[in-house]
Structure prediction request, 121 residues.
Amino acid sequence: MYVPPGWPPEVLPPGSPDWQTSAVNWLLDAVPPDYRAYGVLRRHPLALARMAGHTVRAQVEGARAGYRDAAVDLKEHLPPHVVQAVLEVYRREGPRLVALAESIALVERALRGEEFVEGRR
Prediction:
């Protein structure tokens, strides 16, 4: 079965046996550990995907704000090389979080029943 670019390798293709279980496990790894305490999220993967999407998009916004403010907020408290190292963490985490948000969106679309066709986005 075709999966689009950005589909997480840890999640089986939609329609294959246990694909939703693999999606739930992967989504739970993408959100704060406390989400594991809510059985409703395990029983309803679409609800988990929706919450994961919101959570990770909020992390993207938080990383962007943190990057914008880090140099000013930290310059009086940390040496310049440490501030630069913190900015580098933001530069690495930002793209990772954006890619994660996009992958979560793909999984959510599949959980809603969308079928992916090669050549169509």
